[in-house]
Design a protein that fits this description.
Blueprint: H1 2-52, E1 86-91, E2 98-103, H2 109-119, E3 129-132, E4 135-141
Antiparallel strand pairs: 1-2, 2-4, 3-4
Helix pairs in contact: 1-2
């Protein structure tokens, strides 16, 4: 019985060490995936603007902006982001001219801060990746 209790205690100790590391790794993976996806989206909108002379009109979350279907093909714009929430194209709102947003993210603030550190300055209140009403925006053009 003592041997079984010792084995259970050792397994519990190993789990207590492994679980937090696994959660940190999962958070880092979510943040890295979102940072990559938002860069792809930003490049797609800039390419659209170069070809058409202007950015597409503002849309609601989860809706592909008109004319962007081909440009956003590498992304699943209508599917949830890796941070949870929906993709959103912001044009002329939130005090910026153009930006790619995540609306209603369900990820932790730690994950969002990791994204900000990868894209910008690590401060969610300022810079090119920052908080906006209902989500966070990666600014293409201030």
């Amino acid at each position: 019985l003592v041997e079984i209790l010792t084995v259970v205690a050792i397994i519990g100790l190993l789990a207590a060490i492994a679980v937090p590391n696994m959660i940190r790794s999962q958070t880092a993976a979510q943040a890295g995936r979102y940072a990559h996806d938002v860069r792809v989206a930003m490049d797609s909108f800039m390419e659209f603007a170069l070809m058409n002379g202007q950015y597409p009109a503002d849309t609601t979350p989860g809706i592909v902006p008109p004319g962007m279907e081909e440009f956003l093909r590498p992304l699943h714009w209508t599917a949830p982001t890796s941070l949870g929430g929906e993709w959103d194209w912001d044009r002329g709102v939130f005090g910026i001219n153009a930006g790619v947003s995540v609306f209603g993210p369900t990820a932790s603030m730690a994950a969002l801060e990791m994204v900000d550190a990868q894209l910008d300055d690590g401060d969610l209140t300022s810079g090119a990746f920052r908080e906006r009403a209902g989500g966070f925006v990666a600014i293409i053009e201030p």
